[in-house]
Design goal:
It contains 11 helices and 6 strands. By secondary structure, the chain is of the alpha/beta class. It folds into 2 domains: 144 residues, HAD superfamily/HAD-like (Rossmann fold); 84 residues, Putative phosphatase, domain 2 (DNA polymerase, domain 1, Orthogonal Bundle). Strands 3-2-1-4-5-6 form a 6-stranded parallel beta sheet. Helix 2 crosses helix 5, helix 3 runs antiparallel to helix 4 and helix 4 crosses helix 5. The longest helix is centred in the first third of the chain and has 36 residues.
């Protein structure tokens, strides 16, 4: 009697268990696993540019103001023509700056000199005047990446949040203050303060020391694979790659803990 009941129970359990696993238990297990992965996290280091603050559109809008103010249509067919020349030069220069191949003054001068090459010979003084105007306009822009504010308000309840950025000191603070992000940020760590840029491991060590945090209890969130994700990997800090463009980047033997296309996904992960 007892043996037959045990056989029946085992048979019933064998039949039901796969159904449970296929109808949602696996999702619950994944959710539990996700939260256990981040259960030790106390500190969030978040990139600013194109992770929270919409750098692409804000900078483009600022440059368009300069374009019309200074009548650059004398040299280019349209603003879009100018921007299509400016953007790849600017991105290449920031990549060189990231790896210490050029310094800040060189980046500042060359990002305007190169687009005008063949059109206009510019003095350093002229470029610096334009750059100061550009930074002033940019610092007043407030467009954020979608859902940045609501996500930051949520994360601020549970974690200490720090901005970790290669951006220039004279404009990064203005971006945070004017865009409404400031109430959710405990501190801003800039590469200029650390004396070294992402992805160098030294800036992450500096950031942890400055915030009295440990890499194992911290998480990096950012949109730049080479700066944010590789940088975090260099010090053993877990990371979430914000990849709204669906870029393909990889490193043999390494992957971020998660890849997200929308900031709202952080509600489920953290």
């Amino acid at each position: 009697m007892f043996v037959s009941q045990a056989v029946e129970l085992h048979t019933a359990a064998s039949a039901v268990l796969p159904l449970l696993l296929s109808s949602g238990t696996s999702g619950l297990a994944a959710s539990s696993s996700t939260h256990s992965v981040f259960s030790m996290i106390k500190h969030l280091f978040i990139d600013l540019d194109d992770t929270l603050w919409d750098t692409y559109h804000n900078n483009k809008s600022s440059l368009e103001e300069l374009y019309h103010t200074h009548a650059w249509d004398r040299y280019f067919d349209s603003f879009e023509t100018f921007f299509s020349i400016y953007l790849p030069h600017n991105e290449a220069l920031w990549s060189e700056y990231r790896y210490g191949q050029i310094d800040k003054p060189t980046l500042t001068l060359e990002r305007f000199r190169r687009p005008f090459s063949g059109y206009l010979t510019l003095s350093d003084e002229q470029i610096l005047a334009w750059n100061a105007e550009f930074l002033s306009i940019t610092g007043r822009k407030t467009r954020l990446c979608p859902h940045a504010l609501e996500v930051m308000e949520y994360l601020h309840r549970y974690y200490r949040i720090y901005i970790l950025s290669n951006g220039f000191r004279e404009v990064q603070h203005a971006k945070v203050e004017r865009s409404g992000l400031l109430p959710y940020i405990h501190r801003m760590i800039l590469s200029e303060d650390a004396g070294v840029n992402n992805p160098n491991a030294a800036i992450f060590r500096y950031a942890c020391s400055a915030t009295n945090s440990r890499c194992a209890e911290s998480l990096m969130i950012g949109d730049s694979w080479p700066a944010d994700i590789v940088g975090a990997k260099n010090v053993g800090m877990p990371s979430i790659w914000f990849n709204p463009k669906g870029l393909e980047c990889s490193m043999e033997g390494y992957a971020p803990r998660h890849i997200i296309g929308h900031l709202k996904e952080l509600f489920q992960l953290l």
